Amino acid sequence: MGNYLETLKNISKDKQKEKLIYVLILCVVLFIAISYIFNDNKQTEEISKENTINSNSTSTEININSSKDIMEEKLAKILSEISGIGNVSVMITYSSDVKINPVYNTKEEEKEGEKTVDKSVVYNEEDSKKKVVIESTNMPIVEGVIVVAIGADNVEIRSKIAQAVSAITNVAIYKIQVFEKKG
Predict the structure, then answer these.
(1) Which residues have CB under 8 Å from 148's CB, separation 6+?
(2) Across the strands, what pairs with 108?
């Protein structure tokens, strides 16, 4: 009977070990699955953030290009209202593109003498859409202006046009060219 009890004890110990091994294996598999799921979500989130930044910068570029065209149209309209000037066309050249500076959350950590900086773009959520928070926008610098206008054959009219363009664009008069429009 003593051998029988010892055999039962060994069998129950083996089953407990077996159960423990199954639980450990299950925990490892569960851990790997969870880390894979969260890692996949994180990558999807990063891709989504990049797409949001790219789509926002694309729409901003379109708005800036529209602004450049609007500037030319407004300048042409105001110049055509000056006495002695007829139909006007304006072209403005820029030395650089618009630079948009987003706001960043910065987290600095120092571990074992190594400094790490984690920067992430700040978003503002409106109507369940994320928009990048912009700290500043550096507008392009006007490099030169060409104006073609009816009435610009007169020296005094050309001078008025150049002065008006200089006042609006803050460009030196020598960078402004005024020509008579064929009529």
Answers:
(1) 88, 89, 90, 178, 179, 180, 181
(2) 117
Q: How far apart (Å, rounded) are the C-alpha atoms in residues 66 and 80?
A: 21
SS3 63: helix
pLDDT digits (tens, 9 = 90+) for 65-81: 567 778 888 888 988 88
Nearest-angstrom CA–CA distance, 31 and 154: 83
Residue 157 CB: number of other CB atoms within 10 A? 21
- Residue 48's SS3 state is helix
- 27, 35, 119, 150 from 38: Cα distances, Å: 16, 5, 21, 67
Q: Where do the domains of the chain lie, and which CATH numbers do they carry?
A: 2-98+139-180 (3.30.300.30), 100-136 (no CATH)
* Sequence letter at residue 56: N
Could you tell me where the beta strands, DSSP code E, fall in 9-157? 88-94, 99-102, 104-111, 114-121, 123-126, 129-132, 134-138, 142-149
Orientation of helix 155-169 relative to helix 2-80, angle to 10°: 160
Q: What is the pLDDT of residues 3-53, one digit of tens each?
A: 655 654 565 566 666 666 666 677 677 777 777 666 655 444 544 444 444
Residue type, 150: I
